[in-house]
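Justification of resources, computational component.

The compute hours requested in this renewal are based largely on the per-chain cost of generating structure records like the one below. Each record pairs the submitted sequence with a full structure-token output. That output is archived, and it is also reused by downstream analysis tasks.
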Amino acid sequence: MAKPNYSFEKRQRELQKKQKKEEKLAQRRAGAASKAQAAAEGEGSNESEAPAAPQPADDSQA
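The structure output for this chain reads:
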């Protein structure tokens, strides 16, 4: 019977953990980017939705 190679198994587990960690980080970055983009779009849409206040008429030039 062959002797188990614990070093190989350990390395494979470490690689899986690293890959999973990188995937989570990428998801967090994507989520943060989408939140920032939504916030920027939200700010821009507020300006377009809200009508500008009318300028007071200047009656002093009569």
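The mean pLDDT is 81. The longest helix spans residues 6-49.
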